[in-house]
Structures are given as structure tokens and as C-alpha cells.
Design brief:
- This protein folds into 3 domains: 163 residues, no CATH class; 33 residues, no CATH class; 159 residues, Ribonuclease H-like superfamily/Ribonuclease H (Nucleotidyltransferase, domain 5, 2-Layer Sandwich).
- It is 26% helix and 25% strand.
- The chain contains 10 helices and 20 strands.
Length: 399
């Protein structure tokens, strides 16, 4: 038993209906006659007409009656196909003589045309699902929507596009379209690129689970609030290399020693990583001789160059604590890691500035260590060379 909405009792006469034809991108609705009026109705389960003359291939219907919303039954004379145009035919259109208007079933038309329909306060719009093109629209007259593309169909479609373009739903779909086109970009970034798309939208209402999954990162390590107040009480160290190009005297690595208090850096070139032990022992001797103090703690990563018998024995004999970062967490040795990167950036920039060969990159690192000591360091709020006048005399001792 079909259900017919009350629209059949309140409709008024109007110009001809929109008709669907098949194009290269799906169906397009246009008009070829002014004598047909079709009410777009979401409450009917089938297309229905009161005029048997429009029906071709007339056959008895398997249904005998239809009932409207108040339960009043209406007899079905038959059913058949109804040709709206040369390219579109509605099948299984029921003939109900008691009707006063033709009823277009939204459920049937969206299935037949593979389209969606969106209702606005003054219009309704049909969209092809595959191409997303607007294939037709209806106009609201009184309290009903009529299939309404007449001979001036281009003007009607243009008006439908205009209304659709200023709608919240249209803007929302455009935002999501550009969000996907730009690789799931931030919506704040899209707001700066296309501010007009957010004229009626709240940017905080947009969330993308795909972006959160695909572009998630490890939570950053918190900055250490502990700062040493005594020079050389804590020394950070790290080894960089191997370089692709060897220096003229065969060095491919370098080791850095950074004082945690002043953030002054000492650099020593290495021919092999296993020279770290001898370089650190010489560095300790220099600190004791020049600054009359001793290193208390050595902070390094878990590199094999810091784990050998000679270095471990030296640290034990001199009472130096060796702090090691956790495996695969270079952030724990971040002071040395960042200092190495800063040193390399300064060296490369200087070499590029004078068009020198990369052969001199590692040999230039010692000379450029002094230049990176002059800018203020955020962790100590002033340039390292001003932190201690005594240490500043020996920024780059030869070891």
C-alpha cells in the first residue's frame, strides 16, 4: 500500500516541469513542453499521474489502491511508462484518476538518476552523485516544490547555482574539497588561503581524523629546568661523522665537548671514532690546568666510542660520573645534538658564502667554533663568552 502526501490537495497550477535528459556527465533536466506540472514529493513511494493519456505501455497494476496520509483510499487504474523526453522515461508510473496533480517521487527519481536532492528555502537542487554536477532544480511556490526548468532553463540553473554557492552546505563541501586537495592541510591554513569559504562557518567545527592519524608525531620531550651554576660540573659530548670527504690530514669525524653552565663548545677532529677516549682525557687535563677545576659529570649517548675500557677506567679513576641517554632517544642528549647541528650550519653557510670546496668543511669547524659563541644562548640569556671572563680566554684551546 502506497502513501500519498497531502500535497495533492493543495497544489496550484504552474508552468511546465523540468525533464531529465542524458548527457556526457549524467542526467540534465530541461523542458520540452508547458502542459505538464510535476510536484516534487518526498512522501510518495511511486510516481503518480492522473492523466492516462501520458502513459505508454499501459498494463494492469499489481496494486489496487493507494492511501493518502489520512487513510483515504484511491483506486489505481493501471500503470505504465511515461516519457518525459526523448531520453528519459519514468517506469512504473501509477495512474490514479482521483489525483489533481502529477506527483514525482523523490525516492524513485534519485534511484533512477543516481543523484541526490538538497532542499533550500526557495529551491531544491538535484546533484549527480558521480560528477557532483547540478542536473536540475525545483522552485518553491506556495508550500510546494515544483519541477521547474522551463524554456529559460539556463537562467533557472544559473539562479540555482547562485543560491547553492552561498549556502553553508556548499561552503562546507568546498572546504573539505580543498582540505583533501592540499593533503589534509590545517583548516587554519585554509582559512588564510580562502577566507570567503569561512564567511558562514566556524573553523572550530572542522576536525579531520585522517590528518591526526597520518600526521601525528611523538610528544616533544619537556625542556630541562635544571641548569648548572658551576662551569665544568656537567659536560655534554657527542660524535659526528663519518663525513663523505676526508680532510687533508685524514679526519672524517669530530667530537664536541659542551660546558652545561656556559654552553661553550670545544671541538676536536678525529680520524677514527675510537680516538674519543684520548681526546677526552686531554680535554680533562686542559680544564684542570687552565681553569683549576675538574669535570664532575660526562653526558653522552650510547655510542660505542664512549664505551671502551680505556675511557671507563679513566672515568672511574677520576671520579667522573658517566650519564648515558636511553637507547634510540637522542633527545636525552639534545644539548650536544643541537650544538653539532648548529656548528655544521655555520660552517656550511660560511663555505657557501666564499664558494669554498667541501674539502675544507671539517677543517673549518675549529675556526668557526668561535663565531657561534658570540650570539646569546636562550638557556643562559647571554653570549657564552660573557659568562666567564676566565673561560673566554680559552674558547678554543688546542688539544
Amino acid at each position: 500500500m502506497n502513501i500519498v502526501s497531502s500535497s495533492q490537495t493543495t497544489a496550484s497550477t504552474s508552468p511546465s516541469s523540468k525533464i531529465a535528459t542524458t548527457g556526457s556527465h549524467g542526467y540534465v533536466l530541461h523542458s520540452s513542453s508547458k502542459k505538464h506540472i510535476w510536484v516534487i514529493d518526498t512522501g510518495v513511494t511511486d510516481h503518480m499521474t492522473f492523466d492516462p493519456g501520458q502513459i505508454t505501455s499501459h498494463t494492469p497494476s499489481s496494486q489496487s489502491v493507494v492511501s493518502n496520509v489520512n487513510g483515504t483510499p484511491s483506486s489505481i487504474i493501471g500503470e505504465g511508462s511515461l516519457s518525459l523526453s526523448d531520453s528519459l522515461t519514468l517506469d512504473s508510473v501509477l495512474i490514479v484518476s482521483s489525483l489533481h496533480h502529477n506527483l514525482l517521487s523523490v525516492a524513485q527519481i534519485t534511484t533512477a538518476l543516481n543523484c541526490t536532492e538538497i532542499f533550500w528555502p526557495t529551491h531544491c537542487v538535484f546533484h549527480d552523485i558521480l560528477s557532483s554536477k547540478t542536473i536540475g532544480c525545483g522552485t518553491k511556490r506556495g508550500k510546494l516544490y515544483y519541477l521547474d526548468l522551463t524554456s529559460d532553463s539556463e537562467a533557472s540553473l544559473s539562479h540555482a547555482y547562485k543560491i547553492e554557492g552561498t549556502s553553508v552546505e556548499k561552503q562546507t563541501s568546498e572546504v573539505w574539497l580543498w582540505h583533501r586537495r592540499l593533503g589534509h592541510a590545517l583548516f587554519g591554513y585554509l582559512h588564510k588561503l580562502f577566507p570567503s569559504l569561512f564567511s558562514q562557518l566556524d573553523i572550530s567545527s572542522f576536525t579531520c581524523d585522517i590528518r591526526e592519524l597520518a600526521k601525528s608525531h611523538r610528544v616533544p620531550f619537556p625542556l630541562s629546568s635544571y641548569k648548572n651554576l658551576v662551569p665544568f660540573s656537567l659536560v655534554h659530548s657527542d660524535v659526528w661523522g663519518p663525513a663523505k670527504i676526508t680532510t687533508p690530514w685524514g679526519a672524517r669525524w669530530f667530537v664536541t665537548f659542551i660546558d652545561d653552565c656556559t654552553r661553550i663548545i670545544w671541538v676536536s677532529l678525529l680520524q677514527t671514532k675510537w680516538e674519543v677516549s684520548s681526546k677526552f682525557q686531554k680535554f680533562c687535563q686542559m680544564v684542570e690546568t687552565q681553569f683549576h677545576t675538574r669535570i664532575r659529570v660526562l653526558q653522552s649517548d650510547n655510542g660505542g666510542e664512549f664505551f671502551n675500557h680505556d675511557l671507563n677506567q679513566f672515568l672511574q679513576d677520576h671520579g667522573i660520573i658517566h650519564q648515558r641517554s636511553c637507547p634510540y632517544t637522542p633527545q636525552h642528549n639534545g644539548v650536544a645534538e643541537r650544538k653539532n647541528r648548529h656548528l655544521l650550519e655555520v660552517v656550511r653557510a660560511s663555505l657557501f658564502g666564499v664558494c669554498l670546496s667541501p674539502l675544507r668543511e671539517k677543517s673549518s669547524s675549529l675556526q668557526h667554533t668561535l663565531s657561534i659563541e658570540f650570539p646569546p644562548v636562550s638557556s643562559i640569556s647571554k653570549p657564552p663568552f660573557k659568562h666567564s671572563t676566565t673561560i673566554s680566554k680559552y674558547l678554543i684551546p688546542k688539544i
